[in-house]
Amino acid sequence: MNAPHIIVPDLEVPDTLARILADKYEEVRSRAAATPLSEIERQARSAPKPRDFVRSLCEAVAEGRVGLIAEIKRASPSGGLIRDPFEPAKLAEAYCEGGATCLSVLTDTPYFQGSAEHLKLARAACPLPVLRKDFMVHPWQVYEARAMGADCILLIMAALSDEQAEELEDLTHSLDMSVLVEVHDQRELDRALGMNSRLIGVNNRNLRTLQTDLATSEQLVPQVPADRIPVAESGIRTPDDVRRMAAAGARCILVGEHMMRQQDVAAAAHQLVHAL
């Protein structure tokens, strides 16, 4: 079967992201050739009903807790191998025990050693809504996310044109899933606020240097309107970091590598959830 025609937008992106995206487009071409859009859409529409990702975060904040999106990932380009042995179901259970609000599961294989199976195992192990953390560039992946059980997807503004982002957002919402729109700077935030999704993720990691700086959230989060929900991402390790993000206006956080490196994952989650 011939691979589908996929248009790659002309974007100015950092070298690391450019390599990842080039590989991702090739991966999508291959996977979509093996499983046609009509088939993956059928699988998506027959999947169990999504869990409400946004409502879960809103309820946590309303109750005075930190809305913790706890991430499950085995490796990363900046951190290398993070956890071994790596058991997604046990990690999901531990995060739930520690008071996490939602999960984020890496499904990218080449750079994060993730897989769809990791997401399926994590979601089956607990009642929390789950974000599919991957480089989403094509509608086929949105259907695939729903088919594997994801309740939310990540849209990285640095990796997408406005037209792509809007198309993927509209499709995701039509499947009753949530979208976390991720930004790294002022220009991306301005673009993200032109979309409909309530979740605005501010990533403290510089895509060019891969270094993290919480000042990024301190600069951008106060500009997120009251009808949106800011989520501070990357570089958050301690209760003081959580309080710093909350002071900036982000009572929801996404934390992965720090907790993945702890022996007692439940305790690590509990410490951050009850930092305020």
UniProtKB/TrEMBL annotation:
The keyword Amino-acid biosynthesis applies. Signal peptide: none annotated. PROSITE patterns: IGPS. It is an enzyme of class 4 (lyase). Keywords: Amino-acid biosynthesis, Aromatic amino acid biosynthesis, Decarboxylase, Lyase, Tryptophan biosynthesis. Pathway: Amino-acid biosynthesis; L-tryptophan biosynthesis; L-tryptophan from chorismate: step 4/5. It catalyses: 1-(2-carboxyphenylamino)-1-deoxy-D-ribulose 5-phosphate + H(+) = (1S,2R)-1-C-(indol-3-yl)glycerol 3-phosphate + CO2 + H2O. Residues 17-272 form the Indole-3-glycerol phosphate synthase domain. Its EC number is 4.1.1.48. One of its GO terms (biological process) is L-tryptophan biosynthetic process. Belongs to the TrpC family. This is Indole-3-glycerol phosphate synthase. It comes from Dankookia rubra. The lineage of its organism: Bacteria, Pseudomonadati, Pseudomonadota, Alphaproteobacteria, Acetobacterales. The gene is trpC.
